[in-house]
C-alpha cells in the first residue's frame, strides 16, 4: 500500500459509478423480486445510511411490506476517504463468498438477493431487529447462542471448502476465484501482520500504550512468531475463510446469529477465523475493566465471555469432527479407502483429533495477532475507544497485549482451551510497563 | 477419475482439433518468426513424431536452417488412448508456466516461440543434441552439470514465485491462474498419492513385487505419513512448482541442462520438485543393480549418482539462500523492516536456515512418495523396465521401496543430506520379503 499522499483513486470496473441514495432506489426499482419484498412503489420507500464498518457504503431500504440491505464497494476506504484508494471490485468477492456458502451455512448468513458486478452493488436480506455483536458486548448484553452459532458457522464453512469436504478440483476452482481478492488482502496483511511491528503513518494508538508498542517493535522473538503465522496465512490454503470474523461482522438477537461482510474472504488456515472471533471476545473481556459498572455485574459478564470462548471452541470441534465422520469419502485429504480396516479406522480417529488440535494452536496464535492489531494498528475498536480515560483505556489494552505476547512467545503454555481461559484473567493487571513482572 | 470403461472424450476448447503432421506444417507456415527459424519453405520441412512421455503429441519439425519442437495436448492420455480422457487445456498451463518463468530461469528452459490456445498447440525451441536424462542414466552416461543446474532451476523458480521473492499480490495472481490446472493434477493426486496404497485397475507392477505392494496397502503408519504429505501438497501454496520434475523432464548435454514439460505446474511445497528429482536419481541408483555391467564401473557410476544428489541439494540450498539474502525486501514473508537491527539480522539468518531445513524434510518425504509411485502405480519407468529378468527387476525395486518406507516412517533418521546418502546403499539387499530384517 502506498502512503496516502501519493495515491490516486482509479476505477477498473467498466460502468462503475458511486451510487447516490436516489440511484439506489432507482436500481432497486428495476429488480421486481426485491421491489416485491419492499412492497408499494418507489415513492413509498425510505432509505437511510447505516455504514458502520471501515470499508463500504451501506444502506437500509424499507417499504410498506419489508426492508433490504443495499451495499456498494467504494473505490476508496470509506472511513479514511479518497486519500486511501482501494479497488472497488471487492463486492464481487463478498457476493461470491455468500453464493459459495449459501447452501452450506443456511440461516447463519443473510440471503443474497442481487449482485450487480458493474456497480459492485449487493442487495441482501435486512437483518432486523439484529444488532452488531460488538455493540451488545460493550453494553454488557448477553447473546447466549452467538458463540455456538459462530463455531458451527466456521466448522461448516471450513469443512465444506477443504480437502476433507470436497474433491480438490472443487477446492482449486474456489482457490482460483478467491486468490484474486488481493486488494483487500493487502489491508489484512499490512494492518494485521506488518504495521503493528514498525512505525508507519497508519498506526494509531494512544501515547499511554507507547512503551508496549515500542517493546513489540523491538521484540525479535515476537516478530519471529508473527512471521511464522504471516507465512502460514499466505501459504496455507486449508479452507475458505471469512477473513474478518470479528464481533463487528456478526449480527445477533437473543435467538439468532448472522455472519455478514465476507469481502475479506480468502483461502487460509481455519484457525484464522476462529482466532479473530476469540480475539474480539478477549478484547471485550479486558475492555470491561475500563467501564464504570457494578463489580459483581462485571465479573458475571466476564464469566459469560469466557464461557462463550469455551463454547465457540467446543462447538467448532464437535461440529467439524461430526461433519468429517459423516462424510468420510467427500474429499481427497484422507481417502476412505486408505483407512478402511479396523487399524485404519483407529488411526483416522487419531488423525482427526490431531487435525483439530493443530487448528487450536493456530487459533491461539492468530487470536494473539488479532488482539495486537486492534491496539497498535490502524483499525481501532469501539470496545476500547468508549473508555474515555486514556490511562484506564491503556490499562485494558495492556492486559490484552500482555496476553497476546505470551500466547505468541510461549505457545507450549497454551496446549488446550483450559490453559487459554485461565490465562486471560492472569494478565489483567499487566500495566503500562511491558517489562514489569505483572506483564510477563 | 472414472474407470476407463465409463469415460468418454469431451472437448471444451472451442476450435480445438487434433492436428495431423500436415496440419502442424500448415500451422507453422502461418507463423513467420517460426518459419524463419526453419528456413526454406514448407515443402522443405520434415516432421517426425518424437512423443516420449505419457501425455502429449510431440513432433520435431526441421528445415534447412534449423528446427523447432511442436507439441499438442490431446483430449486423452496419449500412452493409454482414448479410453482415458483428459482435458486438452493443459498446454495452456505449460505455456503459462514457460512464460512465468522465462525471465527467471533463463537458458535452463527451452524458449517458447508460439502458443495457440484454441488448438492447445505450443511451438518451442528444439533441443539438439540434448537427450532425455533418464536415457543417459540408464546407459551409465555422466552429465556432470545436470544436478547443479536443476538445483539452480528449482531455487530460482521457487524463490521468484514465493512470498520471499514477490509481493503476495503477484503470488496470488499466479496461484489463481495455476489453481485451474486441476485436470492433470487429478493424475498426480491419484497416481502418486492414492493408487499405490489401494487395489485399482490402473496399478501396474510385476507379481514379484506383490508382497511389497500388499505390505504398503496394509501399513497404516506409512499411509498416515503419505496422508500428511498429500495434504501438504494440496494445501501449501509455497511456490510455483514444475510438478513433474523427474529425469524424463530434463534434457541434457555434457554442458547444458534444459527443464521441459511444465504441464503439471501447480503451487505447492518446494520440496516436491526437489524430491521428484532425487527420487529418480535414487531409482537410477537401484536400477543399476539390475543391469549387466562391470562391477567397478557400476560402483563408480553409483558414486556419481550419489554425488549428483548431494550437488542438487547443496546447489539448491546455496542458490536459494543467496537469492533471499540479495532480495531482502522483495516479498511479504519476512519484511526487511521487521528484521532491520543486529538482533533481527541474526534471527533472520536462523529463520533462513530453518526454512531450507524444512524444505529438506519435505524433499525426503516427497522423494519417498515418488519412488513408491514409480514401482507400484500406473506410470512405470524405463530404468526398471529395461531389466528383463523380473526377479532382478523386483530386487532393484524392492531396495527402492525399502528405502522409501524408511524415509517416510522414520524421518527423524534422515535429518540431513549425509543421512540420506548413507541410507541408499544400506537398502540394496532389502529383498522381496517386506518383513525380512534386510528390508527394515
From TrEMBL, chains A, B:
Keywords: ATP-binding, Kinase, Nucleotide-binding, Transferase. Belongs to the methylthioribose kinase family. This is S-methyl-5-thioribose kinase. Pfam families: APH (PF01636). GO terms for molecular function: S-methyl-5-thioribose kinase activity. Homodimer. Residues 214-282 form the Aminoglycoside phosphotransferase domain. Transmembrane segments: none annotated.
Amino acid at each position: 500500500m502506498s502512503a496516502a499522499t501519493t495515491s490516486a483513486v482509479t476505477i477498473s470496473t467498466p460502468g462503475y459509478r458511486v451510487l447516490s441514495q436516489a440511484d439506489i432506489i432507482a436500481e432497486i426499482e428495476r429488480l421486481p423480486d426485491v421491489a416485491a419484498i419492499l412492497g408499494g412503489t418507489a415513492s413509498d420507500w425510505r432509505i437511510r445510511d447505516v455504514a458502520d464498518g471501515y470499508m463500504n457504503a451501506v444502506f437500509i431500504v424499507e417499504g410498506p411490506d419489508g426492508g433490504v440491505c443495499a451495499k456498494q464497494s467504494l473505490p476508496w476506504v470509506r472511513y479514511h476517504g479518497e486519500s486511501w484508494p482501494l479497488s472497488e471490485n471487492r463486492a464481487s468477492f463478498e457476493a461470491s463468498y455468500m453464493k459459495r456458502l449459501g447452501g452450506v451455512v443456511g440461516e447463519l448468513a443473510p440471503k443474497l438477493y442481487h449482485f450487480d458486478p458493474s456497480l459492485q452493488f449487493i442487495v441482501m436480506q435486512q437483518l432486523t431487529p439484529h444488532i452488531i455483536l460488538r455493540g451488545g458486548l460493550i453494553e454488557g448484553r448477553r447473546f447466549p447462542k452467538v458463540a455456538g452459532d459462530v463455531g458451527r458457522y466456521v466448522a461448516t464453512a471450513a469443512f465444506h471448502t477443504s480437502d476433507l469436504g470436497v474433491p480438490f478440483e472443487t477446492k482449486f476452482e474456489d482457490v482460483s476465484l478467491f486468490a484474486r481478492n488481493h486488494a483487500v488482502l493487502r489491508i489484512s496483511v499490512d494492518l494485521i501482520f506488518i504495521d503493528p511491528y514498525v512505525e508507519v503513518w497508519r498506526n494509531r494508538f494512544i501515547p499511554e500504550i507507547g512503551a508496549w508498542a515500542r517493546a513489540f517493535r523491538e521484540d525479535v522473538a515476537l516478530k519471529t512468531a508473527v512471521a511464522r503465522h504471516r507465512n502460514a496465512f499466505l501459504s496455507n490454503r486449508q479452507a475458505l475463510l471469512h477473513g474478518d470474523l470479528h464481533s463487528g461482522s456478526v449480527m445477533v438477537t437473543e435467538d439468532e446469529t448472522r455472519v455478514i461482510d465476507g469481502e475479506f474472504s480468502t483461502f487460509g488456515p481455519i484457525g484464522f477465523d476462529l482466532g479473530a472471533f476469540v480475539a474480539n471476545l478477549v478484547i471485550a473481556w479486558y475492555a470491561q475493566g475500563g467501564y464504570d459498572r457494578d463489580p459483581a455485574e462485571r465479573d458475571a459478564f466476564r464469566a459469560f465471555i469466557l464461557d462463550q470462548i469455551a463454547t465457540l471452541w467446543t462447538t467448532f470441534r464437535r461440529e467439524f469432527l461430526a461433519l468429517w465422520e459423516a462424510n468420510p469419502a467427500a474429499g481427497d485429504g484422507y481417502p476412505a479407502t486408505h483407512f478402511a480396516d479396523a487399524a485404519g479406522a483407529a488411526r483416522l480417529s487419531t488423525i482427526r483429533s490431531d487435525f483439530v488440535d493443530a487448528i487450536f494452536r493456530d487459533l491461539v496464535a492468530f487470536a494473539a495477532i488479532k488482539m495486537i492489531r486492534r491496539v497498535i494498528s490502524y483499525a481501532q475498536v469501539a470496545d476500547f475507544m468508549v473508555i474515555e480515560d486514556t490511562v484506564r483505556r491503556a490499562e485494558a489494552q495492556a492486559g490484552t497485549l500482555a496476553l497476546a505476547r505470551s500466547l505468541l512467545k510461549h505457545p507450549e503454555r497454551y496446549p488446550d482451551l483450559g490453559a487459554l481461559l485461565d490465562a486471560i484473567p492472569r494478565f489483567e493487571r499487566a500495566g503500562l510497563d511491558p517489562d514489569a513482572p505483572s506483564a510477563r
